[in-house]
Design brief:
Order of helices and strands: HHHEHEHEHEEHEHHEHEHEEHEEEEE
Oligomer: single chain
Helix content: 40-55%
Shape: elongated
Radius of gyration: 26 Å
Number of helices: 12
Number of strands: 15
Largest sheet: 7 strands, mixed
Length: about 350
Protein backbone atom coordinates (compact mmCIF):
# COMPACT_ATOMS: atom_id res chain seq x y z
CA UNK A 1 0.00 0.00 0.00
CA UNK A 2 2.93 2.30 0.78
CA UNK A 3 4.29 1.90 -2.72
CA UNK A 4 0.86 2.55 -4.18
CA UNK A 5 0.42 5.72 -2.14
CA UNK A 6 3.80 7.04 -3.24
CA UNK A 7 3.11 6.26 -6.89
CA UNK A 8 -0.26 8.00 -6.76
CA UNK A 9 1.16 10.97 -4.84
CA UNK A 10 3.95 11.38 -7.38
CA UNK A 11 1.56 11.17 -10.33
CA UNK A 12 -0.85 13.69 -8.76
CA UNK A 13 1.96 15.88 -7.42
CA UNK A 14 0.52 15.88 -3.88
CA UNK A 15 1.56 14.39 -0.53
CA UNK A 16 0.87 10.79 0.48
CA UNK A 17 -1.26 12.15 3.33
CA UNK A 18 -3.46 13.95 0.81
CA UNK A 19 -3.80 10.76 -1.23
CA UNK A 20 -4.84 8.90 1.91
CA UNK A 21 -7.51 11.49 2.75
CA UNK A 22 -8.94 11.28 -0.78
CA UNK A 23 -8.97 7.47 -0.81
CA UNK A 24 -10.76 7.42 2.55
CA UNK A 25 -13.17 10.14 1.39
CA UNK A 26 -12.24 12.47 4.24
CA UNK A 27 -12.86 16.24 4.23
CA UNK A 28 -10.21 18.93 3.99
CA UNK A 29 -9.16 18.39 0.35
CA UNK A 30 -9.80 20.97 -2.36
CA UNK A 31 -12.03 19.72 -5.22
CA UNK A 32 -9.29 20.20 -7.85
CA UNK A 33 -6.79 18.29 -5.67
CA UNK A 34 -9.29 15.48 -5.12
CA UNK A 35 -9.85 15.27 -8.90
CA UNK A 36 -6.08 15.17 -9.50
CA UNK A 37 -5.76 12.16 -7.20
CA UNK A 38 -8.68 10.36 -8.85
CA UNK A 39 -7.18 11.04 -12.28
CA UNK A 40 -3.85 9.65 -11.07
CA UNK A 41 -5.65 6.47 -10.00
CA UNK A 42 -7.12 6.10 -13.47
CA UNK A 43 -3.83 6.83 -15.25
CA UNK A 44 -1.91 4.28 -13.15
CA UNK A 45 -4.58 1.64 -13.69
CA UNK A 46 -5.73 1.40 -10.08
CA UNK A 47 -9.41 0.70 -9.42
CA UNK A 48 -11.19 3.46 -7.55
CA UNK A 49 -12.56 2.53 -4.12
CA UNK A 50 -16.28 1.77 -4.31
CA UNK A 51 -17.16 4.86 -2.30
CA UNK A 52 -15.44 7.09 -4.88
CA UNK A 53 -16.96 5.62 -8.00
CA UNK A 54 -19.46 7.74 -9.85
CA UNK A 55 -22.89 6.46 -9.12
CA UNK A 56 -25.19 5.84 -12.02
CA UNK A 57 -28.20 8.12 -12.22
CA UNK A 58 -30.14 5.06 -13.35
CA UNK A 59 -30.66 2.72 -16.26
CA UNK A 60 -32.17 3.89 -19.56
CA UNK A 61 -33.40 1.45 -22.17
CA UNK A 62 -32.51 1.91 -25.84
CA UNK A 63 -34.63 -0.17 -28.22
CA UNK A 64 -33.42 -0.25 -31.84
CA UNK A 65 -34.18 -2.43 -34.87
CA UNK A 66 -31.67 -4.93 -36.23
CA UNK A 67 -28.12 -3.67 -36.57
CA UNK A 68 -27.58 -4.82 -40.18
CA UNK A 69 -28.44 -1.30 -41.35
CA UNK A 70 -25.45 0.82 -40.23
CA UNK A 71 -27.64 3.84 -39.48
CA UNK A 72 -28.98 2.13 -36.34
CA UNK A 73 -25.57 1.46 -34.74
CA UNK A 74 -24.76 5.10 -35.54
CA UNK A 75 -27.82 6.25 -33.58
CA UNK A 76 -27.06 3.81 -30.75
CA UNK A 77 -23.48 5.00 -30.38
CA UNK A 78 -24.41 8.67 -30.02
CA UNK A 79 -27.36 7.95 -27.71
CA UNK A 80 -25.30 5.69 -25.44
CA UNK A 81 -22.41 8.14 -25.13
CA UNK A 82 -24.78 11.08 -24.50
CA UNK A 83 -26.65 9.11 -21.82
CA UNK A 84 -23.35 8.21 -20.15
CA UNK A 85 -22.32 11.86 -20.09
CA UNK A 86 -25.55 12.57 -18.21
CA UNK A 87 -24.75 9.86 -15.67
CA UNK A 88 -27.16 7.23 -17.00
CA UNK A 89 -26.26 3.66 -17.87
CA UNK A 90 -27.70 2.64 -21.27
CA UNK A 91 -29.20 -0.81 -21.80
CA UNK A 92 -29.12 -1.65 -25.52
CA UNK A 93 -31.92 -3.85 -26.88
CA UNK A 94 -31.61 -4.87 -30.53
CA UNK A 95 -34.32 -6.66 -32.44
CA UNK A 96 -33.85 -9.39 -35.03
CA UNK A 97 -36.46 -11.07 -37.24
CA UNK A 98 -38.05 -13.86 -35.24
CA UNK A 99 -36.19 -12.79 -32.10
CA UNK A 100 -37.20 -10.84 -29.02
CA UNK A 101 -39.98 -8.37 -29.79
CA UNK A 102 -40.20 -4.73 -28.76
CA UNK A 103 -42.86 -5.52 -26.16
CA UNK A 104 -40.74 -8.32 -24.68
CA UNK A 105 -37.76 -5.99 -24.41
CA UNK A 106 -39.93 -3.40 -22.69
CA UNK A 107 -41.02 -5.97 -20.08
CA UNK A 108 -37.35 -6.83 -19.42
CA UNK A 109 -36.49 -3.17 -19.04
CA UNK A 110 -39.38 -2.58 -16.66
CA UNK A 111 -38.17 -5.51 -14.55
CA UNK A 112 -34.83 -3.72 -14.28
CA UNK A 113 -36.59 -0.53 -13.18
CA UNK A 114 -35.23 1.69 -15.94
CA UNK A 115 -35.64 5.44 -15.59
CA UNK A 116 -36.81 5.84 -19.19
CA UNK A 117 -36.72 4.34 -22.69
CA UNK A 118 -35.64 5.64 -26.09
CA UNK A 119 -37.31 3.96 -29.08
CA UNK A 120 -35.60 4.21 -32.49
CA UNK A 121 -37.78 3.41 -35.54
CA UNK A 122 -40.04 1.28 -33.37
CA UNK A 123 -43.71 0.35 -33.52
CA UNK A 124 -44.56 4.02 -32.96
CA UNK A 125 -43.68 4.48 -36.66
CA UNK A 126 -46.08 1.72 -37.73
CA UNK A 127 -49.60 3.03 -38.34
CA UNK A 128 -50.95 -0.56 -38.19
CA UNK A 129 -49.59 -1.13 -34.67
CA UNK A 130 -51.54 -0.56 -31.46
CA UNK A 131 -50.00 2.48 -29.78
CA UNK A 132 -51.74 1.90 -26.46
CA UNK A 133 -48.50 0.19 -25.37
CA UNK A 134 -46.84 3.62 -25.22
CA UNK A 135 -49.75 5.27 -23.43
CA UNK A 136 -49.52 2.54 -20.78
CA UNK A 137 -45.83 3.33 -20.24
CA UNK A 138 -46.54 7.05 -19.89
CA UNK A 139 -49.33 6.28 -17.40
CA UNK A 140 -46.94 4.34 -15.09
CA UNK A 141 -45.40 7.04 -15.31
CA UNK A 142 -42.26 6.23 -17.33
CA UNK A 143 -40.56 8.87 -19.53
CA UNK A 144 -40.14 7.79 -23.16
CA UNK A 145 -38.83 9.44 -26.33
CA UNK A 146 -39.38 8.25 -29.92
CA UNK A 147 -36.98 8.73 -32.85
CA UNK A 148 -38.13 8.61 -36.51
CA UNK A 149 -41.84 8.05 -36.60
CA UNK A 150 -44.81 9.92 -35.18
CA UNK A 151 -48.02 8.74 -33.56
CA UNK A 152 -50.66 11.34 -32.61
CA UNK A 153 -52.20 11.21 -29.18
CA UNK A 154 -49.05 10.06 -27.35
CA UNK A 155 -47.84 12.58 -24.75
CA UNK A 156 -44.12 12.22 -25.42
CA UNK A 157 -41.35 13.97 -27.38
CA UNK A 158 -40.75 12.77 -30.94
CA UNK A 159 -37.54 13.39 -32.89
CA UNK A 160 -37.59 12.84 -36.67
CA UNK A 161 -35.75 13.67 -39.84
CA UNK A 162 -38.00 15.49 -42.33
CA UNK A 163 -38.54 12.59 -44.74
CA UNK A 164 -40.79 14.53 -47.10
CA UNK A 165 -38.27 17.34 -47.39
CA UNK A 166 -35.49 14.80 -47.96
CA UNK A 167 -37.32 13.24 -50.90
CA UNK A 168 -38.11 16.62 -52.44
CA UNK A 169 -34.45 17.65 -52.19
CA UNK A 170 -33.34 14.41 -53.84
CA UNK A 171 -35.82 14.87 -56.69
CA UNK A 172 -34.76 18.49 -57.16
CA UNK A 173 -31.13 17.36 -57.40
CA UNK A 174 -31.93 14.84 -60.14
CA UNK A 175 -34.15 17.31 -62.01
CA UNK A 176 -31.30 19.84 -61.94
CA UNK A 177 -29.15 17.19 -63.61
CA UNK A 178 -31.69 16.84 -66.41
CA UNK A 179 -33.62 13.79 -65.25
CA UNK A 180 -37.34 13.72 -65.87
CA UNK A 181 -38.28 10.07 -65.45
CA UNK A 182 -37.41 9.48 -61.82
CA UNK A 183 -38.44 6.55 -59.66
CA UNK A 184 -38.89 6.18 -55.90
CA UNK A 185 -38.04 3.06 -53.90
CA UNK A 186 -39.06 2.87 -50.27
CA UNK A 187 -40.53 0.50 -47.69
CA UNK A 188 -44.05 -0.68 -46.80
CA UNK A 189 -46.63 2.09 -46.78
CA UNK A 190 -47.84 1.44 -43.23
CA UNK A 191 -44.79 3.27 -41.86
CA UNK A 192 -45.02 7.02 -41.22
CA UNK A 193 -41.59 7.85 -42.75
CA UNK A 194 -42.60 5.97 -45.92
CA UNK A 195 -45.88 7.86 -46.18
CA UNK A 196 -44.01 11.14 -45.87
CA UNK A 197 -41.48 10.14 -48.54
CA UNK A 198 -44.24 9.18 -50.96
CA UNK A 199 -45.99 12.50 -50.29
CA UNK A 200 -42.72 14.37 -50.89
CA UNK A 201 -42.16 12.40 -54.10
CA UNK A 202 -45.65 13.20 -55.37
CA UNK A 203 -45.29 16.90 -54.56
CA UNK A 204 -41.84 17.22 -56.14
CA UNK A 205 -42.67 15.27 -59.30
CA UNK A 206 -45.86 17.25 -59.79
CA UNK A 207 -44.20 20.61 -59.19
CA UNK A 208 -40.85 20.09 -60.91
CA UNK A 209 -41.63 17.60 -63.69
CA UNK A 210 -45.35 18.07 -64.23
CA UNK A 211 -46.03 14.36 -63.64
CA UNK A 212 -49.63 13.22 -63.48
CA UNK A 213 -51.03 11.20 -60.57
CA UNK A 214 -50.96 8.07 -62.75
CA UNK A 215 -47.30 8.64 -63.66
CA UNK A 216 -46.37 9.18 -60.03
CA UNK A 217 -48.08 5.92 -59.12
CA UNK A 218 -46.20 4.08 -61.84
CA UNK A 219 -42.84 5.44 -60.70
CA UNK A 220 -43.20 4.73 -56.95
CA UNK A 221 -42.22 1.21 -55.85
CA UNK A 222 -42.83 0.01 -52.30
CA UNK A 223 -40.66 -2.90 -51.23
CA UNK A 224 -38.93 -4.43 -48.22
CA UNK A 225 -36.20 -2.35 -46.60
CA UNK A 226 -32.73 -3.70 -47.35
CA UNK A 227 -30.48 -4.53 -50.28
CA UNK A 228 -32.73 -7.26 -51.68
CA UNK A 229 -35.85 -5.10 -51.54
CA UNK A 230 -34.05 -2.25 -53.27
CA UNK A 231 -32.72 -4.56 -55.96
CA UNK A 232 -36.14 -6.04 -56.77
CA UNK A 233 -37.89 -2.65 -56.88
CA UNK A 234 -35.13 -1.03 -58.94
CA UNK A 235 -35.35 -3.80 -61.50
CA UNK A 236 -39.02 -3.00 -62.07
CA UNK A 237 -38.33 0.74 -62.36
CA UNK A 238 -35.45 0.25 -64.79
CA UNK A 239 -37.75 -1.79 -67.02
CA UNK A 240 -40.05 1.25 -67.07
CA UNK A 241 -37.26 3.46 -68.37
CA UNK A 242 -36.26 5.55 -65.34
CA UNK A 243 -32.93 7.38 -65.51
CA UNK A 244 -32.84 8.29 -61.82
CA UNK A 245 -33.85 6.46 -58.64
CA UNK A 246 -34.41 7.91 -55.16
CA UNK A 247 -34.21 5.30 -52.40
CA UNK A 248 -35.57 5.12 -48.85
CA UNK A 249 -32.27 3.92 -47.39
CA UNK A 250 -28.63 3.54 -48.35
CA UNK A 251 -28.98 -0.24 -48.34
CA UNK A 252 -31.86 -0.02 -50.82
CA UNK A 253 -29.66 2.23 -52.96
CA UNK A 254 -26.91 -0.40 -52.98
CA UNK A 255 -29.52 -2.89 -54.14
CA UNK A 256 -30.57 -0.50 -56.92
CA UNK A 257 -26.96 -0.22 -58.10
CA UNK A 258 -26.72 -4.02 -58.16
CA UNK A 259 -29.93 -4.25 -60.22
CA UNK A 260 -28.60 -1.76 -62.76
CA UNK A 261 -25.32 -3.61 -63.16
CA UNK A 262 -27.05 -6.95 -63.56
CA UNK A 263 -28.78 -5.44 -66.61
CA UNK A 264 -25.54 -4.25 -68.14
CA UNK A 265 -26.10 -0.64 -67.08
CA UNK A 266 -23.60 1.65 -65.40
CA UNK A 267 -24.15 3.91 -62.38
CA UNK A 268 -24.18 6.84 -62.97
CA UNK A 269 -23.55 6.62 -66.73
CA UNK A 270 -26.97 5.04 -67.38
CA UNK A 271 -28.87 5.33 -64.10
CA UNK A 272 -28.37 7.80 -61.26
CA UNK A 273 -29.07 6.59 -57.71
CA UNK A 274 -29.69 8.58 -54.51
CA UNK A 275 -29.67 6.93 -51.08
CA UNK A 276 -30.98 8.00 -47.70
CA UNK A 277 -29.21 8.18 -44.30
CA UNK A 278 -25.53 8.76 -45.26
CA UNK A 279 -24.70 5.81 -43.05
CA UNK A 280 -21.02 4.95 -42.41
CA UNK A 281 -18.90 3.86 -45.40
CA UNK A 282 -21.27 5.21 -48.07
CA UNK A 283 -18.49 7.56 -49.20
CA UNK A 284 -16.38 4.49 -50.02
CA UNK A 285 -18.79 2.44 -52.12
CA UNK A 286 -18.34 2.01 -55.88
CA UNK A 287 -19.38 4.55 -56.95
CA UNK A 288 -19.46 6.71 -53.79
CA UNK A 289 -23.14 7.14 -52.97
CA UNK A 290 -25.04 10.39 -53.36
CA UNK A 291 -27.42 10.38 -50.40
CA UNK A 292 -29.64 12.37 -48.07
CA UNK A 293 -27.85 12.70 -44.73
CA UNK A 294 -29.78 12.32 -41.50
CA UNK A 295 -28.35 14.60 -38.79
CA UNK A 296 -27.83 11.62 -36.49
CA UNK A 297 -25.79 13.38 -33.81
CA UNK A 298 -28.14 16.34 -33.47
CA UNK A 299 -31.21 14.09 -33.41
CA UNK A 300 -29.75 11.67 -30.86
CA UNK A 301 -28.55 14.44 -28.53
CA UNK A 302 -31.94 16.17 -28.71
CA UNK A 303 -33.71 12.91 -27.87
CA UNK A 304 -31.49 12.21 -24.86
CA UNK A 305 -31.84 15.77 -23.55
CA UNK A 306 -35.62 15.56 -23.82
CA UNK A 307 -35.62 12.22 -21.99
CA UNK A 308 -33.31 13.45 -19.22
CA UNK A 309 -35.52 16.51 -18.76
CA UNK A 310 -38.54 14.23 -18.44
CA UNK A 311 -36.73 12.01 -15.93
CA UNK A 312 -35.74 15.05 -13.86
CA UNK A 313 -39.32 16.29 -13.76
CA UNK A 314 -38.90 19.06 -16.33
CA UNK A 315 -41.44 18.06 -18.94
CA UNK A 316 -40.18 18.46 -22.49
CA UNK A 317 -42.68 19.62 -25.14
CA UNK A 318 -44.82 16.69 -26.22
CA UNK A 319 -44.53 17.37 -29.93
CA UNK A 320 -42.41 16.34 -32.89
CA UNK A 321 -39.02 17.92 -33.49
CA UNK A 322 -38.28 17.82 -37.22
CA UNK A 323 -34.63 17.96 -38.32
CA UNK A 324 -33.67 19.03 -41.82
CA UNK A 325 -31.72 16.56 -43.96
CA UNK A 326 -28.65 17.43 -46.03
CA UNK A 327 -27.98 16.46 -49.64
CA UNK A 328 -24.51 14.95 -50.03
CA UNK A 329 -23.53 14.72 -53.70
CA UNK A 330 -21.03 12.02 -54.64
CA UNK A 331 -20.42 9.82 -57.65
CA UNK A 332 -23.68 7.87 -58.06
CA UNK A 333 -25.57 10.73 -59.75
CA UNK A 334 -24.74 12.40 -63.05
CA UNK A 335 -25.99 14.86 -65.65
CA UNK A 336 -28.20 13.40 -68.37
CA UNK A 337 -26.98 13.86 -71.95
CA UNK A 338 -29.68 13.09 -74.44
CA UNK A 339 -28.68 10.44 -76.97
CA UNK A 340 -30.16 9.83 -80.36
CA UNK A 341 -31.59 6.46 -79.39
CA UNK A 342 -34.50 5.56 -77.23
CA UNK A 343 -32.28 3.59 -74.84
CA UNK A 344 -30.63 4.68 -71.63
CA UNK A 345 -29.24 8.19 -71.57
CA UNK A 346 -25.53 8.91 -71.51
CA UNK A 347 -24.56 10.96 -68.48
CA UNK A 348 -21.66 13.01 -67.17
CA UNK A 349 -20.71 12.46 -63.52
CA UNK A 350 -21.82 15.17 -61.11
CA UNK A 351 -19.16 16.90 -59.00
CA UNK A 352 -18.20 14.48 -56.22
CA UNK A 353 -18.04 14.97 -52.47
CA UNK A 354 -20.17 18.12 -52.51
CA UNK A 355 -22.36 18.67 -49.48
CA UNK A 356 -25.36 20.95 -50.03
CA UNK A 357 -27.12 22.03 -46.80
CA UNK A 358 -30.87 21.75 -46.85
Amino acid sequence: MRARLSDIAQQAEVSEATVSRVLNDRPGVAPETRQAVLTALDVLGYERPARLRKRSAGLVGLVVPELDNPIFPAFAQVIESTLAQSGFTPVLCTQTPGGVTEDEYVEMLLDRQVSGIVFVSGLHADTAANHDRYRALIARPLPIVMINGYAPGIAAPFVSCDDGEATELAIAHLVALGHRRIGLITGPDRFVPVQRRVAGFRAAMTRLVGATEAEVGELAELSLFGVEGGEAAAGRLIERGVTGIVCGSDLMALGAIRAARQRGLSVPADVSVVGYDDSPLMAFTDPPLTTMRQPVTAMAVAAVRALVDEINGHAAPHSEYLFRPELVVRGSTAVVRQSGTGGPKSQRPAPSSLAIPA
